[in-house]
Design goal:
By secondary structure, this protein is α/β, with parallel strands linked by helices. Helix content is 28%, strand content 17%. The chain is built from 17 helices and 22 strands. It has helices at residues 22-25, 36-41, 43-49, 84-96, 115-122, 183-199, 224-240, 254-257, 275-285, 289-296, 324-334, 350-353, 358-370, 436-441, 446-459, 462-465, 552-558, and strands at residues 17-20, 53-56, 100-105, 135-136, 157-160, 165-168, 203-206, 245-248, 269-271, 306-310, 317-318, 341-342, 345-346, 374-378, 467-470, 478-485, 488-495, 501-505, 514-517, 522-523, 532-536, 541-547. α6 runs parallel beside α7 (224-240) and α9 (275-285) runs antiparallel to α10 (289-296). The protein starts with 16 loop residues before the first strand and ends with a helix. Bound molecules: alpha-D-glucopyranose (GLC) and calcium ion. Alpha-D-glucopyranose is lined by residues 66, 69, 171, 207-208, 249, 314-315.
Amino acid sequence: MARAADRDPLWYKDAIIYETHVKAFFDANGDGIGDFAGLVQKLDYLEHLGITCLWLLPFFPSPLRDDGYDVADYCGVNPSYGTLADFRRLLEEAHQRGIAVIIELVVNHTSDQHSWFQRARRAPPGSAERDYYVWSDTDQRFKGARIIFTDTERSNWAWDELAGAYYWHRFFSHQPDVNFDNPRVLDEMLGVLRFWADLGVDGFRLDAIPYLVEREGTNCENLPETHTVIRRLRAALDREFSGRMFLAEANQWPWDVRPYFGDGDECHMSFHFPLMPRIFMALRLETAEPILDILGRTPPIPETCQWGLFLRNHDELTLEMVTEEERDYMVLAYARDPHQRLNIGIRRRLAPLVDNGRRRIELLNSLLFSLPGTPILYYGDEIGMGDDVLRPDRDGVRTPMQWTGGQNAGFSGAPATALYSQPITDPVYGHAAVNVEAQLRDPSSLLHWMRNLIRLRKQFQVFGRGTLEFIATSNPKILAYLRRWGEDTVLCVANVSRNIQPVELDLSSFKGATPVEMIGYTGFPKITGERYFLSLVGYGFAWFELRGVRPSGSAAQSR
Ligand code: GLC
Ligand code: CA
């Protein structure tokens, strides 16, 4: 890949992001834990799949009580995964294959094992060292802030014996929140940013950013002071580096996420959290309405910004950004077994969520790849891996990548008992049934299908950059929309119901144009002044390139 400084500064708009844990991908040294050397060995696989950006979950020294989101040292590498030199090698090898690498910047909190916290506990109250964190004599402050990990935590305050004070934490009690009211903390975080950006990292996922600053009388989320911190981080990134990207993890309503893009001076990208559960809801309710509704309530974002779209990730399918009624429905539809639930969400992977329905997996991916934003895939979902809801916390969706049907799923040569986690072994989703090796050999596998979809998407910049217009349909089970960018106009239609459906679309402003289906390259009948008729099989979708579209000015006049 071109050096970060030389390539299109908007590269992330055209990216296909692949999220993985180093520990879960491939174990090169045979100790049972995935490592950087293993990831390097599997870069050819990722290149073949066609992804253009690798997002690595935290790999820093950590007690691993929150799988590395409890950082003990921001500028190091957990020795289980290799050395800093191994990381550099990964970066270099990825770049050679045209793959960008983004990493985590866990800005909101550290592990209680971090030296800053250990020092803070011992430092005198009121000192700069103590004030790296948020302390209080009572646990009654900031009562307006909700608890996020509702299954484990009862309060956002924890008592520290040594300090003789309470400290503030929005997540686990072993993850004290840092104090951005102390200017030294921002300086430290800037140092961390520089450290990794200097090494050549292409972007940062800013973890849990709505919670950076606390103020009495508020819910302590999305505060103006928090945005000031983000603008400072961004200003440094822009001043000192080029071609890098910030991806915001702000699990909030679209109108509350919008400010994280700022005027193009905060984050380049942000996940669209509320869209994700609504895609699943549309599928179960057999109506496009939930998707139309949330995208209708999504404000426009600055030209240089981009939504990050995902179906599943390393966390539970969060139901924080839905109404109570919708939440009840989602739980009924997708998590009848209480083991499938975690905090305010559902801890399942994509394939099991849709009962391993190949058509549904394809439909969901077609939305992921054609709605406005950059698609983010979670490792293993490209082969339809399963989960194990009986494992603690989110461990059931973080199992070893299934490379083969053999020993340890081909993930590691270690004795099975040494693995960081046992591969999934059930008859439907286990590695004997679901693995890369078999799917590479099988031309009709999900893996091949995903690869083709990725290839197709990469040929048309319209998907990453174009505008979105919904088209009114005669059938609520059909979602129809146009993506337009420059000369390109693409019509996307999706049937969210299980049965074949007819639909009539008003395409009269494209009179004279010919829709060409983009996967099979099949020409469809010319668009006339009449309503355009299509039928879609259950869970079917289609993308059409509209050929011969007159420039938008003249199309508008002809109406
Ligand atoms: C983010 C991460 C999640 C982690 C939490 C606390 O939400 O995605 O995995 O537990 O932050 O760091
Ligand atoms: Ca290893």
